[in-house]
Design brief:
Layout (H helix, E strand, L loop, with lengths): L6 H11 L11 E2 L2 E2 L4 H20 L4 E3 L3 H22 L7 H27 L4 E4 L4 H24 L1 H25 L15
Parallel strand pairs: 3-4
Antiparallel strand pairs: 1-2
Helix pairs in contact: 2-4, 2-5, 2-6, 3-4, 4-6
C-alpha cells in the first residue's frame, strides 16, 4: 500500500510541520516518502522515545533523583553537540550531513529523556524512591551502548524497513509530545504525587 495515500501519513506531516521546517534535503526518506520531520528532529524524537523504553525497563524502583554529576555533565555535552553541530554548519565551519544531524539529535533527545525521567518519577509517584538514576558507571555504559546500537539501526532502517520506519518515527514524535506535556502538568501540586504505579487510574 502506498503510504502517501494514507490519512495517517497526512496527519503525521501536519504534526511534523508544527515543530519542524521539514526541508526535503535535510530529511531522510523512507523509500519514496519523506520522513515527517528533518533528520535532526527525527534523531531527537527517536532518542527520547528509545531512551524512555530503556529507562522504564531498566529502572523500576521509581528512582526520583538525577544521575551523578559526571553523568549530568556528559548528558549536557550530548545536548550541546546538537547545538554545536547546527552552529558550526550555520557559520560554514563544518559541512553537516543528515547522518551527523541524526546522531547529534539522537544524543540530545536521549540526554533530555534521561534528565526528565527522574523528574517524572518524583512528580508522578506518591512513593518515589530517593535513589539516583545511573548510580553506577556500568549502567550508564550499557545505556550508551544501547544508544549506539539504536543509532546504527536507525540509520540502517531507513533503507531496510521503509514503511515501518516511517511510523516508528511518528510514534516517537507523539510520545515525546505526550510525555513532556505530562511532566509539565505534574509540576502543578494539584496533579503531583498521586500514583502508586505507572498506569494508575
Amino acid at each position: 500500500m502506498d503510504i502517501m495515500n494514507n490519512w495517517l501519513t497526512r496527519f503525521a506531516e501536519l504534526i511534523g510541520s508544527s515543530v519542524c521546517h521539514q526541508l526535503a534535503y535535510r530529511s531522510f526518506w523512507a523509500g519514496t516518502v519523506k520522513i515527517p520531520v528533518c533528520a535532526r528532529c527525527e534523531g531527537i524524537y527517536a532518542g527520547f522515545f528509545i531512551s524512555a523504553i530503556f529507562l522504564f525497563c531498566f529502572f523500576r524502583k521509581k528512582q526520583g533523583e538525577l544521575p551523578p554529576l559526571y553523568i549530568i555533565i556528559t548528558l549536557a555535552l550530548f545536548i550541546l553537540s546538537a547545538f554545536a553541530e547546527w552552529g558550526f554548519s550555520f557559520f560554514s565551519l563544518f559541512e553537516s550531513t543528515n547522518i551527523s544531524r541524526f546522531i547529534t539529535g539522537y544524543l540530545a533527545g536521549s540526554a533530555s529523556m534521561t534528565i526528565v525521567f527522574p523528574v517524572f518519577n518524583y512528580q508522578y509517584y506518591s512513593d518515589a524512591v530517593s535513589e539516583r538514576v545511573f548510580p553506577r558507571l556500568w549502567q550508564f555504559a550499557v545505556f550508551i551502548s544501547v544508544s549506539a546500537v539504536f543509532i546504527t539501526m536507525g540509520l540502517a532502517g531507513i533503507t531496510v524497513i521503509n514503511n515501518v520506519y516511517y511510523y516508528v518515527t511518528f510514534i516517537s514524535i507523539l510520545f515525546t509530545f505526550y510525555f513532556t506535556n505530562l511532566v509539565i502538568v505534574l509540576l502543578f501540586p494539584v496533579f503531583a504525587k498521586k500514583a502508586h504505579r505507572l498506569f494508575s487510574g
